[in-house]
Write a structure and sequence with these properties.
The protein has helices at residues 2-9, 62-70, 102-112, 117-130, 146-159, 176-193, 204-210, 241-260; strands at 20-31, 34-46, 51-55, 77-81, 88-90, 164-168, 196-201, 213-217, 224-229. The chain is an alpha/beta fold and 264 residues long. Its EC number is 3.6.3.-.
């Protein structure tokens, strides 16, 4: 697997001190009543190989921050650095092209990266194998379950060979059992590839189950309100006592932020 993985991703060890550096970032949008401050003076580093979850109430600016890190928008103030190159972004919706097969969806990312045509199919199949979709290369999107579609989306994101994977609530629309399976798969893939992950969620237990570090944003405007280092051995389960205990502590902090800002 290690040889196939290295061939599929062309990953080399990054000498960088961090995978992402967010320095005093603020973001405003123009509204009917004038500029609306969404993010306020956020500073956050993601280390190489680190798994960080961003947690907060709806509307606190989690997805906005992820879009800024992805380069889809520019901050109003502050700086964002991703020295390992452009991050890969995985959305809540799989965003696969329905007229392409699973394999061709992955190949598209390889083609855009400049991988030679003769090498694309083999590498796409290796990436599909990495996400446990062996034999799915020729399947159309409508033939795949929701969980399988998200696996293809994950393979396509990994095909971009980025040192940083940005994930915006990628499992929120899935049923609990499928989500649980994909938590295991994401943890396995993260550990095998050593990619850095910045993962947005509003699910406290999901945040604790997956991350090495949980960052809580305050309600709008979003600020870094609190951070927790998750010192619990992997693999973890949603129902583990240590996961539940830390989740209770974080939930209380989250409720306090919501009350403080008058949101329900």
């Amino acid at each position: 697997m290690a040889t196939a993985l290295a061939k599929a991703t062309d990953r080399t060890a990054a000498p960088h001190e961090y995978a992402a550096r967010i320095g005093h970032v603020s973001k405003s949008f123009n509204g009917p009543a004038g500029p609306q401050l969404v993010l306020d003076d956020i500073s956050l580093d993601v280390a190489p190989g680190e798994f960080v979850t961003l947690l907060g109430a709806s509307g606190c600016g989690k997805s906005t921050l992820l879009n800024l890190v992805a380069g889809l928008d520019a901050p109003t103030a502050g700086t964002i650095e991703t020295p390992g190159g452009r991050p890969a972004l995985m959305f809540q919706e799989h965003a696969l092209f329905p007229w392409l097969t699973a394999g061709k969806n992955v190949e598209l990312a390889l083609r855009l990266r400049g991988v030679a045509k003769n090498d694309r199919r083999e590498r796409a199949e290796e990436l599909l194998s990495l996400v446990r979709l062996q034999g799915a290369y020729g399947k159309r999107v409508h033939e795949l379950s929701g969980g399988m579609r998200q696996r293809v989306a994950m393979a396509r994101a990994l095909a971009q060979d980025s040192q940083l994977l940005l994930m915006d609530e990628p499992f929120a629309a899935l049923d609990a059992i499928t989500r649980d399976v994909l938590h295991d798969e994401l943890t396995r893939i993260w550990r095998e590839t050593n990619v850095s992950v910045l993962f947005v969620t509003h699910n406290v237990r999901e945040a604790v189950r997956l991350a090495q570090r949980v960052v809580l944003l305050s309600s709008r405007p979003g600020r870094v309100a609190h951070e927790w280092t998750v010192d619990i051995d992997q693999p973890r389960r949603i129902e583990d006592a240590e996961v539940a205990e830390l989740s209770v502590e974080i939930t209380e902090q989250l409720r306090g932020e919501i009350r403080r800002h008058g949101q329900h």
